């Protein structure tokens, strides 16, 4: 019972992160399932089955808040579904011994990417807003993202969200809403792939329901928080957690000495703390700059009004 409650909390927290960043639900959930001893294929299968419900709830919530660009959803979601089915069947065919380091390696790489991207850059500003994204760009992006998402237990958001943000054609909240909504197709296809590869016994329905309940409960709050939370800070916190956890998993699978393991994890923790501190400073500096710009605009507007009053007077 305690495990199921913990999984519900994990699902809730992961959905809050995913709704605010447009990534990391699968990466976070799968990482934590591996930590409690789940087999890689079973962990990814359970998370993706739960994601059918959470992504549907998230998509509806984002739609209600106007965060979805429907022109992009199908263009990226259908190729993503094809990639997810292939990734699920690929992972299902691997032994646990081979799959564990592979999955943790993919999750570690995605964690490093999230940590570095959000610490150093945050969310890029929108450029060329309103121009539709071409299928030639979205189809291969979806195929690769879907394959990594199913085979590594996460990856749809870390691959898709930065790519759409970097295009500058969608504002950040619409990128996040679009990626979360299209992930419903990816989750359905991945679950079908795991069902083919593992059978119904590959899913732990207790885990699925616990993660699903937590994720669905968080979806409306996450869709609202996407407008409120500082993504830079949240990305640093979550990326560091994923890096720390999967570094531990990989080093333990290699049976390294306990002293070396402790030193390595201490080093990761120090880098993580520094990244969070950097993100806090950058966020506060950006807030100060915004306030200064607003004050300057207000002063300029007031001076213009005074000048017009003098002229008309």
Summarize the structure.
The chain is built from eleven helices and no strands. With 313 residues, the protein is an all-alpha fold. The mean pLDDT is 78.
Question: How would you characterize this protein structure?
Answer:
- By secondary structure, the protein is mainly α.
- The chain has one domain (2-312).
- Helix content is 83%, strand content 0%.
- It is globular and about 80 Å long.
- It starts with a helix and ends with a helix.
- 51% of the residues are buried.
Keywords, please?
313 residues; globular
Break the fold down into its secondary structure elements and pairings:
Layout: H1 2-21, H2 25-35, H3 40-64, H4 70-92, H5 96-120, H6 135-152, H7 156-167, H8 172-198, H9 205-225, H10 231-253, H11 258-312
Backbone CA Rg: 21 Å
- Helix and strand sequence: HHHHHHHHHHH
Q: How far from one another are the termini?
A: 77 Å
- Classify the helix fraction into a percent range: over 70%
Question: Which runs of at least 5 residues are low in confidence (pLDDT < 50)?
Answer: none
* 3D shape: globular
- What's the tally of helices? 11
Could you report the average pLDDT, rounded to the nearest whole number? 78
The major sheet is characterized as: none
Helix/strand structural class:
mainly alpha
Q: Can you count the beta strands? A: 0
Estimate the strand proportion: under 5%
């Amino acid at each position: 019972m305690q495990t199921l409650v913990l999984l519900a909390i994990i699902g809730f927290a992961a959905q809050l992160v995913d709704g605010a960043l447009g990534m990391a639900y699968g990466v976070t959930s799968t990482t934590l399932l591996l930590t409690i001893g789940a087999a890689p294929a079973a962990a990814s299968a359970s998370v993706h089955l739960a994601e059918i419900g959470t992504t549907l709830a998230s998509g509806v919530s984002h739609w209600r808040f106007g965060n979805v660009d429907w022109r992009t959803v199908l263009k990226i979601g259908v190729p993503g579904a094809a990639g997810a089915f292939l990734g699920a069947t690929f992972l299902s065919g691997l032994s646990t011994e081979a799959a564990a380091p592979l999955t943790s390696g993919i999750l570690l790489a995605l964690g490093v990417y999230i940590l570095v991207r959000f610490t150093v850059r945050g969310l890029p500003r929108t450029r060329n807003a309103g121009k539709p994204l071409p299928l030639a760009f979205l189809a291969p992006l979806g195929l690769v993202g879907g394959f990594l998402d199913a085979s590594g237990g996460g990856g749809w958001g870390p691959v898709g969200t930065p790519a759409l943000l970097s295009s500058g054609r969608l504002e950040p909240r619409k990128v996040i809403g679009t990626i979360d909504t299209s992930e419903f197709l990816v989750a359905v296809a991945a679950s079908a792939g795991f069902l083919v590869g593992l059978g119904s016994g590959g899913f732990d329905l207790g885990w699925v329901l616990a993660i699903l309940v937590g994720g669905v409960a968080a979806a409306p709050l996450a869709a609202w928080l996407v407008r409120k939370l500082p993504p830079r800070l949240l990305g640093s916190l979550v990326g560091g957690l994923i890096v720390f956890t999967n570094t531990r998993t990989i080093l333990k699978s290699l049976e390294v000495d306990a002293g070396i393991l402790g030193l390595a994890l201490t080093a990761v923790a120090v880098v993580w703390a520094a990244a969070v501190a950097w993100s806090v400073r950058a966020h506060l500096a950006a807030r100060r700059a915004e306030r200064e710009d607003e004050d300057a605009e207000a002063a300029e507007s007031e001076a213009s009004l005074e000048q017009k009053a003098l002229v008309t007077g």
